[in-house]
Write a structure and sequence with these properties.
The protein is of the alpha+beta class and 483 residues long. The chain is built from 14 helices and 19 strands. A hairpin with a 5-residue loop joins strand 14 and strand 15. Bound molecules: flavin-adenine dinucleotide.
């Protein structure tokens, strides 16, 4: 997740992570995704064998693909829709994220104001509408996604973050939002951590979900409306075919009038996307369920989503069975946009996360982590979704959510359908929809630039949030790098 800033005060540098409490807590953690490791996981759907056709072919079975298929069918039940997924529905980012479902379409308000100041209020309104639309869909289709509209608490854990909270509150006030600011005592009264200095509480703009159950529920809703879904069916090639497009798969082919590309960080099918996207790994831990005594020791009765406010931030939340999911902090990029299954695990990051967890909640020392994993995020230099068309407008794509796509993917899908329909409306007229992020440079400059940026961000957090020359130059150019 999330687009926040925050570095833990007492876990700086790699030398402090190998503590016995961190190692003990991780000793039995399964290297697997807690959300996907669930009895509610549905049985596999068949792979595509042979030749088929459809009006609309959706490639990718994460939230973006599922929302595209669902909204297309809801708008026009006669539209013949096929969805193809290379592995299983929701196995990638959509089934392994933090489950923070935010109304923000712009990776947070600060980023939205920086990049789209003129249309910020419209984007905020569309974002609220989008989150309400997600809640309504979940209710309408009876999806058990453990949806809880708990809101989010953004927490300052350093003095400079307290000052930034107050400054940003003034900016928001100019846009008609009166943010709820809480001081140290009020914040610590809600959730008991000695590291909390102040916070902002957004009561309505964020919901929490069980990410995999949301994907599986959307899958079922699509099937109920007549979408044909093929799993374990990788599209290997797209070619023009008369008035439509032809997609090649290992054991079959699909012809269709239109294609919606919803492949997130996987850019092989449309190479130009790799200019704009860097796949970045984000890591997560989940604890065993808290005992009633441990729950009393942390408070947290409002079950809010929490995030600290540094450049390298943590995001954390309770699950339905009162475990704590704790993620964030590191942002790892591999040379050449490399994505590999073994990169889902990273012991140094998991150990740092574990140590930082106990600095935040020393009263929980002795608690064990049961799951550890990582996943890939489609980072772009403006941190928000961007859209485009190819193959003479017969294909549209929506990618670039960076770390905040759980909610935004529904809007990404909606706009993708608008583009395929050639619609001229409030959404397609947005600068956010009409423009693209600045591309990343090619390798080896890409790798070098990202490493320098990571180092600078870490340095800024250690120095009262002060951004060095490199970060200031990137800010000026509108280029960024985040999880
Ligand atoms: C660890 C982690 C934590 C996160 N936490 C949050 C959070 O708390 N809140 C938030 O808002 N966001 C969070 N995110 C981001 C969020 O999960 C994503 O933005 C969102 O899930 C993107 O959905 P998607 O459908 O676009 O992509 P994905 O879920 O990645 O789906 C893309 C799908 O396309 C398929 N595919 C790719 N190529 C092909 C092909 N050639 N043929 C067929 N299928 C193909 C893939 O197999 C994959 O299933 C997090 C991400 C990670 C990794």
């Amino acid at each position: 997740m999330p687009a926040r800033r925050g570095r833990h005060p007492k876990a700086r540098g790699s030398e402090s992570i190998w503590t016995s409490r961190a190692m003990r807590s991780l000793a039995e953690a399964e290297p697997s995704v807690f959300w996907l490791d669930d009895p509610a996981a549905p049985p596999a759907l068949p792979s595509l064998v042979g030749a088929v056709d459809a009006d609309l072919i959706v490639v990718g079975g994460g939230y973006t693909g599922l929302w595209t298929a669902l909204q297309a069918k809801e708008a026009d039940p006669r539209r013949d829709v096929i969805l193809v997924e290379a592995a299983t529905i929701g196995w990638a980012a959509s089934g392994r994220n933090g489950g923070f479902c935010a109304s923000s379409l712009t990776h947070g308000e600060a980023n939205g104001l920086d990049r789209f100041a003129d249309e910020f209020d419209t984007l905020e309104g569309l974002g609220r509408e989008n989150l309400d639309g997600i809640e309504a869909t979940i209710t309408r289709h009876g999806i058990d996604a453990e949806f809880e509209r708990t809101g989010e608490l953004d927490i300052a854990v350093e003095d400079w973050q307290v000052a930034e909270l107050a400054e940003f509150a003034q900016v928001l006030a100019e846009h008609g939002t009166e943010p709820v600011l809480l001081d140290r005592e009020q914040t610590q009264a809600l959730v008991h951590s000695p590291t909390y200095l102040a916070s902002r509480y957004d009561a309505d703009g964020v919901a929490l979900v069980h990410p995999a159950k949301l994907a599986w529920g959307l899958r079922q809703a699509c099937l109920d409306l007549g979408v044909r879904i093929y799993e374990h069916t990788e599209v290997t090639k797209i070619t023009s075919d008369g008035a439509g497009l032809a997609l090649s798969c290992p054991f079959g082919s699909i012809r269709g009038r239109q294609v919606a590309l919803a492949t997130n960080a996987f850019t092989n099918l449309l190479r130009r996307l790799s200019n704009y996207i860097v796949p970045v790994y984000d890591y997560v831990l989940v604890t065993e369920p808290l005992s009633p005594e441990q729950q009393d020791a942390v408070g947290w009765e409002g079950r809010q989503g929490l995030a600290d406010l540094g450049n390298q931030f943590h995001y954390y939340r309770l699950t339905a069975d009162n475990r704590i999911l704790w993620g964030g902090y590191d942002v790892i990029y591999h040379f050449g946009n490399r994505i590999r299954a073994e990169q889902d695990q990273r012991l140094t990051t998991h150990a740092a996360l574990a140590e930082q967890f106990f600095t935040t909640f020393p009263q929980l020392e002795g608690l064990r982590f049961t799951h550890r994993w990582g996943g890939v995020i489609d980072t772009c230099s403006r941190f928000t979704t961007f859209w485009g068309r190819a193959y003479r407008d017969r294909l549209a794509y929506a990618v670039g959510y960076t770390g905040l796509g759980v909610g935004a993917s529904r809007f990404g899908a909606r706009v993708m359908l608008d583009l395929l329909d050639g619609a001229d409306n409030e959404r397609t007229r947005l600068a956010m929809v009409r423009t693209k992020p600045i591309p990343f440079p090619p390798e080896p400059f890409r790798y070098g630039g990202i490493q320098l940026t990571r180092w600078s961000i870490e340095h800024a957090d250690r120095n009262g949030g002060k951004r060095n020359l490199w970060l200031r130059a990137l800010d000026k150019m509108g280029l960024g790098f985040e999880s």
